[in-house]
Amino acid sequence: MYKIFEKIPEASLEYVKSLILSENITIKLKKSRKTKHGDFSVKKNGLCMITINDDLNQYRFLITLIHEISHYKAYKNYGPYIKPHGVEWKNIFKNLLLPIINSEVFPNDILRTLAIYAKNPKASSDTDLNLSLALNKYNMNQYDYVFGLSNGSVFKASNDRVYVMIKKLKKRYECMDVLTKKLYLFSPNVKIKEIINEC
Description:
Distance between the termini: 48 Å
Shape: globular
Order of helices and strands: HEEEHHHHEEEEEE
CATH topology of the largest domain: Zincin-like
Number of domains: 2
Number of helices: 5
Helix content: 25-40%
Number of strands: 9
CATH architecture of the largest domain: 2-Layer Sandwich
CATH class of the largest domain: Alpha Beta
Strand content: 15-25%
């Protein structure tokens, strides 16, 4: 539990402690998972558990932690039958975010996008392109993204498959798997493992 306090901005420490230290909840760090930053679950014995990826930068870690604490509080207040990211969770998440949306906790580039995102939060901060890109600037490893590629560029994605960029659609990018010739739609902020041929 106490290891998580080393993972968040110092200015948010007392606030986060006030949210969790009196609660009956277990928080564990996990190795990086490609499909999620964190999760909340209730075990068969009733134990409430939050897991968070260990490799997140301090700002993404904090937002993810507040996201998952919001799931815990929604479960505690409303029971297990509400929608995971329904109105109950959204209202709790917004209320828990508000006290830390300030320049003591977040740098200005994240602050601006986080304030907009907090008005109507989605299931993942990655669905907000501007917030995702602002947060990713503080990663230890910098990445290239699908949205930065031109048509015809060949790249390797995190699943180690090779794709060619076909074209930009309204919100996504159409790419073709070089091996199977199947078409896939990529979100703009999908990280690229390696650019093989940039046109």
